[in-house]
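User: Predict structure, ligand shikimate-3-phosphate.
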Amino acid sequence: MPSHTFQPSAPLTGRLRVPGDKSISHRALMFAGLAVGQSRITGLLEGEDVLATAAAMRQLGARIERSEDGTWIVDGAGVGSLLEPKQALDMGNSGTSTRLMMGLLASHAISATFIGDASLSGRPMNRVIDPLSQMGATFEASPGGTLPCMLRGASPAVPITYRLPVASAQVKSAVLLAGLNTPGITRVIEPAPTRDHTERMLTGFGAKLEVTEDNGERVIAIHGEADLKPMDVVVPGDPSSAAFFIVAASIVPGSDLVIENVGLNPTRAGIVTVLRQMGADIEELSPREVGGEPVADLRVRHARLKGVDVDPAIVPSMVDEFPVLFVAAALAEGTTRTTGLEELRVKESDRISVMAEALTLAGARVEEQEDGLTIHGTGGEPLHGTPDSASVATRLDHRIAMSMAVSGLVSRDGVRLDDIAPIATSFPSFIDLLENATS
Ligand code: S3P
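Assistant: Predicted complex:
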């Protein structure tokens, strides 16, 4: 458990490039692994979560290699031709790998056991087990619908129409991926739009997929027994990783930082909208398209932030960015109220209570509700935690670790984290980039 203290910092300046998008990286490996032929992926995030997906796809019969220039070369096994893994699939900390992979396997005539770390083993899997069982797969999960979990796929599986009970791109994607090897048309009805990387990228790989609107809800239909053709994927930078630097540059006085190559898919960019409502100074430079996704370089300058009431309708487009938004709110002038965040309680950690505890330790004024936090900001004054306070517990959650690292930059005496190892799941170069930007 490597601990680390993040000290009050000099302004963030210069330029940096965040690594590839985690959601898009997982999907690129999975879809390339299902195509017939060779795909090439550049800009892939080489974090532990994505490497868990690569390892699992290899166990299922895809050939995946990294060439010296950093391009990943994938020879797919073909939809319907995945192999039964000889060992358990170890998903590490990664909920996305687990849930999407359960979808993939649910319509193949094979069995597999999914295992993960202590964080992942506490997370709910019934949200994918339910629809995938309706399609014919069977599961033996641990109590409460958790890992370790054994899956027996069905072939042929049964196409369903499934209305998502929670706004979850992982559940949507699991059902659509199961639909790839299911005869007929599988449909997902999405009451609130969630990240649409699966839809965009599957279309690129040649799947027949239609998105329509019905009574204000998105309906996504995938035609089964698909043949995917290989393609070259360029992965844009991850807005969820960029968010730590957007907030850091916004709250550390004197900062003027350019973050290059940030994906700004509207289903992901809620953090930029909310920070701008708070008064952040974020300029989009050279807007362009990378790999079918909107991208820009972001110039972020320090600004005096004001507290806001965050509209719960924006939650799905920034679901992973609340921990770092809470840090921005802790430095803003006035009160920030967030609601509709129930889903945060079942992420890598319970991000509502873990952030409430961590920020309080760091000296912020925070009130916890069932579905969100209310935060009374310092108006720009550094956070002043209790002297000799214990370390912040990061609880196997990379986004807690990086958010609290950012809080250390605007503290009086630094913020100590008990364990920074989780950062490697999504952003292995985080500390190096932070040190460069502040030196
Ligand atoms: C993800 C979807 C989100 C997000 C996760 C990645 C994805 O989860 O929190 O980090 O790649 O589909 P939910 O869909 O469960 O909200």
